[in-house]
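Fill in residues.
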């Protein structure tokens, strides 16, 4: 009898354990919380990554990279040049949902995520220079919410840009790119500048803010336009539309941005960058040698 009772108890324990384990397996394990956005750490991976097309000049998140400091932010990524007080390039993904009705915030401010020992460009650093605080990633590309629009007003996203260039030619190009989105397109965009010396409202200058900020001679942009879908990188091929532009940083400039179209190869030759490095070489060779004509 005692042995039978022990067998019953043991059987009951095994049944309880078996069904208890099955029940616990029916629960979904909650996902870990999203990682915070910090410089040097990818904000996203795969589609929507602001650097999906590559790291043009091997920027690194280390204070040793004083002239090529990688900053990955929530709404764009950039390589910052502390000696020049400007970004080398800024890269971002533009998606229809990035566009909305949020008004321009105009809250220009220093970027306090830069190393403290470096010169920090202030909101007033361009005052009296004759140059605009020219956005790389435009305010107009981030109108879905206040946070996104405000993020574009960090001074690490600015270059001294001739008003005629910024307010006419460049603005016209930015509006054209946004007009291509609709609900069917998305774009990967890289913008930068090179050279020393431009002409603003008060004439020619090589630097402003007591020599702390370099005025570039030329401003460039590369736009990769694709249909709105998934697996973005794999869908870029030799027929993909790529727009490349180089404009002089002057007021005496044609307001029609299309007159300044060029090739990605020409921008790479001028800057030493590899702008679409994540694409297969065979695709790069075709796209980078083509001048957009649409």
């Amino acid at each position: 009898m005692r042995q039978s009772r022990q067998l019953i108890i043991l059987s009951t324990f095994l049944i309880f354990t078996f069904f208890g384990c099955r029940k616990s397996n029916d629960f979904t394990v909650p996902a870990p919380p999203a990682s915070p956005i910090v410089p040097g750490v990818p904000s996203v991976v795969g589609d929507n990554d602001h650097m999906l097309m590559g790291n043009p000049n091997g920027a690194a998140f280390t204070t040793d990279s004083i002239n090529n400091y990688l900053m990955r932010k929530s709404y764009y990524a950039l390589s910052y040049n502390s000696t020049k007080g400007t970004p080398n390039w800024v890269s971002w993904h533009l998606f229809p949902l990035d566009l909305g009705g949020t008004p321009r915030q105009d809250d220009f401010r220093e970027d306090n995520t830069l190393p403290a020992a470096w010169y920090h460009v202030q909101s007033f650093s361009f005052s009296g220079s004759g140059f605009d605080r020219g956005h790389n990633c435009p305010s107009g590309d981030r109108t879905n919410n206040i946070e996104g629009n405000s993020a574009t007003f960090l001074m690490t996203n600015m270059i001294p840009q001739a008003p005629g260039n910024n307010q006419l030619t460049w603005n016209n190009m930015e509006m054209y790119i946004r007009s291509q989105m609709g609900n069917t397109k998305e774009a990967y965009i890289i913008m930068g500048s090179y050279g020393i010396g431009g002409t603003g409202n008060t004439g020619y200058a090589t630097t402003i803010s007591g020599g702390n900020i370099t005025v570039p001679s030329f401003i460039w942009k590369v736009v990769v336009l694709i249909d709105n879908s998934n697996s973005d990188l794999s869908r870029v091929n030799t027929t993909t539309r790529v727009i490349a532009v180089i404009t002089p940083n002057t007021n005496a400039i044609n307001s029609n941005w299309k007159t300044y179209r060029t090739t990605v190869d020409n921008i790479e030759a001028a800057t030493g960058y590899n702008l679409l490095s994540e694409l297969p070489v065979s695709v790069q060779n075709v796209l980078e040698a083509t001048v957009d004509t649409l």
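The first helix runs from residue 2 to 25.
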